[in-house]
Design goal:
The complex is a heterotrimer of chains A (about 400), B (about 325) and C (about 160). Chain A is α+β, with helices and mostly antiparallel strands and about 400 residues long. Chain A is about 50% helix and about 10% strand. Chain A has a single domain, classed as Orthogonal Bundle (Cytochrome-c3 Hydrogenase, chain B), CATH 1.10.645.10. In chain A, α2 runs antiparallel to α3 and α4 (about 90-115) packs antiparallel against α13 (about 345-350). Chain B is an all-alpha fold and about 325 residues long. Chain B has helices at about 1-10, 15-35, 55-65, 75-95, 115-135, 140-170, 175-185, 190-205, 215-220, 230-255, 260-285, 295-320. By secondary structure, chain C is an alpha/beta fold. Chain C contains three helices and seven strands, in the order αββαββββαβ. Chain C has a five-stranded mixed beta sheet with strand order 1-2-5-4-3, with helices on one face. In chain C, strands 6-7 form a two-stranded parallel ribbon. The chains are: A alpha+beta (about 400), B mainly alpha (about 325), C alpha/beta (about 160). Chains in contact: A-B, A-C. Chains A and C meet through β6, β7, β8 and α12 of A and β3, β4 and α3 of C.
């Protein structure tokens, strides 16, 4: 008996809306289909109406996890269009934040993978350690998620000596912990039983379906934008591309942990070799007519922005392709012949960022419900009153 | 008077009210241990050390809206949670904590009660399957089929493992088995292998990680419980809590020498030993990932069942040697 | 292979098909071809230049024509193949036969620019909702979103 089960748009395994329609026979998936379009915000259209500066903050909001990668990719391209050379200290800080972001994103992903496999202890531990890097990012930029540190021609905040030593300290802790997680992730029998041999994607198919990032590298293809299109500082750093040949979810875990370790190496190199000087160069308001293709290795894979300028202070066209979209065709391939139990793992293994992948269309009118309408100010007043009236709780105590 | 005593027995101690209170305590203990192993605090605010949190959760669920799906078999759907709770609560009465008088077998302690308790512990699984099937949800249906598939895996090793101490003690009555091992504590050691097999099988029976496959939320939403809400879900959760107590009590009675020392000291034994078993179960829960249903079957038939058979053979040989 | 080598060999391989060839920045090569030559060019790029990876397809509304840019990424350069189709008759051949991974990008083009991709294996809508009105293509420059007035039940109008 074959029937269709809908995974999404609302499903506990998905943190964002997307619809996977699985045709299953018993526990085995015979066919899969992905439907997008539940989360459109019309960013590309919107970008054509904003100035170059405003668009930095718009592109930052494409994604909630790899916010810095979109902003960096955009800023790289615009700097090329404006023929602007940012000072090296600014570049170092920009890509330092990039690598810290990669660390936080991969730690987040490890936790999610553990959770999808029902390994909640792994999830809790990795997310606890993710707080270290989140605190570092907050210390550098003032924000935990949307760092807003990029600007045209450099970065907006400088680093001092105390911050540098704190980063090194945090990275040393994280490296120790990551090595420990690597051991657990690659040896814990029940976890490995769930991820080894699951979601196979052969090298040929990975290339043909244009997969990117850790998915591609876990199929044994050593491609990384940081190596092949070294923007700014990456050609000055010493790092390797982490790959795996197992072509399955286990390989994707291994690749991501290897990348974590490489990122720690790069962060240390950048902090220790941080050049002196300015952090920002003055940017013009307008860009000459022209076009540019900007690529950046986001935590999820290759991120590409195509920017056209028409001589005004607004872009003529900004095309954004987030890595998740490129991995969808490969995902359909991986899901076929799998088990129902593997769906969340395989889907999570591409590290889907659905809001990244969907950004092109203007919103249709909001659905209105039956609820009474409350103004924001009213809501805030109620919340304050509620928290003010709440009884004071003692500090939590562990009884044993 | 006898009627009143029977009522007290059924409703207060060791009946529903006691089982309710103790099983919520065990849930709290389980949650707390699980949370500490994960570097969290667990329940803290409701009551001292969050002791009342499971009761608060239960009451909250009771107050929630109760939805019965349009397409479901409504009578079956509604009555199953109550039956499930009744079945495990009945199984709870059979534990040799409250009826330890060897000379006078009563209606809760009689030769063959170990078989009855195992049978009563198997029923909730079938009730879960029926509940899943009658709710007609796609995810529930998959969950229901997983419940049954798993049943065929862990049930046989559990029976073999639990029966082998009984064979050595030469009795089918829990109180007598316990008394046998109280007299010869060293004989508990040959059963160690069976204890671990039974522990894993109980973990599977209680559908806890790594065997929480029928209601794996990241795969099939709530699985068997997808359509259950409000009071019915509360009863199902209570069923699992009581089943946790009864199953750990059973393991304690059979593998840990039971609960010697009469009503009070025996009760202290009961609390300590069940908590030890629950602690071990929490450890398993915290340290593993959820496996696939086909892996459960192959694991229980390739590893658990042979181990249980080896245990049984060893016990039979030992018995021949001893006599 | 350096950029100039790629440009030279592209000139040789494509011959008259390559209408324009530019190398404005390091590792960036722009190539212009006619829409009919797309599939052949994609095959050549895939087999000879290690460009099996199609990064994305960008579309741009240039008034009378729509311009489509296929960004192929090889390990040494990004080769952007540019082609234009008239607004009056927007038709484009599919390159899915050469590069299966292009399917989502082509579906997105159909949604956004109203271009018909001929020979696409799966022509369903990708990002637009199923009840989106026909003939509305959001990324065309003349398309403006008109927000319907929200009516909130129980709210003061």
């Amino acid at each position: 008996m074959s029937f269709q089960i809908p995974i999404g748009p609302q499903h506990p395994a998905l943190k964002e809306p997307i619809s996977l329609r699985m045709t299953v026979e018993g526990e085995v998936i015979t066919d899969a289909d992905i439907r997008l379009g539940y989360n459109h915000r019309g960013l590309e259209k919107l970008a054509e109406e904003r100035t170059w500066i405003q668009n930095i903050y718009l592109t930052e909001r494409i994604c909630g996890i790899c916010s810095h990668s979109h902003a960096t990719c955009y800023v790289q391209g615009v700097e090329k269009l404006m023929e602007l050379t940012p000072p090296r200290r600014g570049l170092y800080i920009r890509y330092l934040v990039s690598e810290l972001e990669r660390v936080h994103s991969h730690l987040l992903w490890l936790g999610v993978a553990g959770h999808e496999a029902g390994f909640d202890s792994f999830f809790m531990y990795t997310w606890r350690d993710r707080e270290i890097v989140m605190d570092l990012l907050e210390m550098i930029s003032g924000n935990r998620v949307h760092y807003a540190i990029n600007t045209l021609g450099g970065v907006r905040r400088d680093l001092d000596e105390g911050q540098k030593s704190k980063i090194l300290e945090g990275v040393a802790t994280l490296r120790k912990r990551s090595e420990y997680y690597f051991r657990i992730g690659a040896t814990e029998p029940s976890f490995v039983a769930r991820i080894a041999g699951v979601g196979m994607l052969s090298k040929e198919r990975a290339i043909a379906l244009c997969a990117v990032g850790p998915v591609l590298r876990a199929s044994g293809v050593a491609r990384d934008v940081r190596k092949e299109d070294p923007c700014a500082v990456y050609d000055e750093l010493d790092f390797n591309i982490g790959t795996a040949d197992s072509c399955d979810v286990l390989g994707r875990v291994v690749v991501r942990v290897k990348e974590l370790l490489e990122s720690y190496k790069m962060i240390e190199q950048m902090v220790k070799g941080l050049p002196d000087g300015d952090i920002v160069a003055k940017a013009p308001r307008k860009a000459k007519p022209g076009e540019t293709v900007s690529r950046y290795e986001a935590p999820r894979g290759e991120n590409i922005h195509y920017i056209q300028a028409n001589g005004s202070d607004k872009p003529e066209r900004l095309k954004v392709r987030a890595p998740t979209l490129a991995n969808y065709p490969a995902t359909v391939e991986m899901l076929r012949k799998g088990f129902i139990a593997d769906i969340p793992l395989i889907f999570a293994a591409i590290d889907p960022c659905i809001c990244c992948a969907e950004r092109t269309v203007t919103l249709v009118s909001a659905r209105s419900g039956e609820e009474s309408v409350v103004r924001m100010s009213d809501l805030r007043r109620r919340a304050l009153a509620r928290s003010g009236n709440a009884p004071v709780k003692g500090n939590a105590v562990w009884p044993f | 008077m006898a009627v009143l005593r029977t009522f007290l027995y059924l409703l207060v101690y060791p009946g529903l009210i006691f089982l309710f209170v103790y099983s919520t305590f065990c849930e709290w203990f389980d949650r707390k241990v699980y949370a500490r192993l994960q570097n969290r605090m667990g329940p803290t605010h409701t009551g001292r050390f969050g002791l009342l949190q499971p009761i608060a959760d239960f009451l909250k669920l009771l107050a929630k809206e109760d939805v019965v799906p349009e397409a479901a078999d409504k009578r079956l759907f509604s009555v199953l949670p109550a039956i499930g709770l009744a079945v495990v609560a009945t199984a709870g009465l059979l534990l040799p904590v409250w009826n330890f008088d060897l000379a006078r077998p009563g209606w809760t302690s009689f030769p063959g009660d170990i078989i009855v308790i195992l049978y009563l512990l198997s029923l909730p699984t079938l009730i879960l399957f029926l509940a899943a099937w009658s709710s007609t949800n796609l995810f529930s249906t998959i969950g229901g089929s997983r419940v049954l598939t798993m049943l065929f895996g862990y049930e046989v090793p559990l029976f073999l493992a639990v029966l082998s101490p009984a064979i050595l003690a030469d009795s089918w009555r829990l109180a007598e088995i316990a008394a046998f091992y109280q007299a010869r504590p060293l004989l508990l050691l040959p059963n160690l292998l069976g204890f671990f097999v039974a522990l894993i099988a109980v973990q599977a029976k209680l559908e806890r990680t790594p065997f929480d496959i029928p209601h794996a939320e990241t795969e099939i939403v709530g699985g068997t419980f997808t359509e259950y809400s409000g009071k019915k879900l509360a009863l199902f959760r209570l069923t699992f809590d009581v089943e946790l107590v009864v199953a750990s009590g059973l393991l304690a009675a059979v593998f840990m020498g039971g609960f010697p020392g009469g009503a009070v000291i025996g009760f202290a034994h009961f609390v300590v030993k069940t908590l030890v078993v629950i602690f071990l179960l929490s450890l398993i829960r915290a340290l593993t990932a959820r496996i696939r249903v086909d892996q459960v079957i192959s694991f229980s038939w390739k590893v658990l069942a042979p181990l249980a058979v080896i245990q049984l053979l060893a016990i039979i040989l030992l018995k021949g040697f001893l006599s | 292979m350096s950029d100039t080598d790629i440009v030279e060999s592209l000139k040789r391989d494509l011959g008259a098909k390559g209408l324009e060839l530019a190398n404005p920045a390091p590792r960036r090569i722009f190539l212009k071809i006619a829409p009919a030559d797309l599939l052949a060019t994609a095959t050549v790029l895939r087999d000879k230049y290690d460009c099996a990876h199609l990064s994305t397809i960008s579309g741009a509304d240039r008034g009378e024509t729509f311009e489509f840019l296929y960004h192929f990424a090889s390990p040494v350069a990004v080769i952007t193949v540019r082609t234009g189709v008239p607004r009056s008759e927007p038709r484009l051949p599919s390159i899915c036969a050469a590069i299966p991974g292009a399917i989502l990008y082509e579906r997105e083009l159909q949604d956004m620019f109203g271009v018909t991709v001929e020979g696409i294996p799966d022509a369903r809508r990708l990002v637009l909702p199923d009840d989106w009105p026909d003939g509305q293509f959001p990324l065309r420059k003349d398309w403006k979103h008109v927000r319907t007035e929200e009516v909130i039940p129980g709210g003061k109008s």
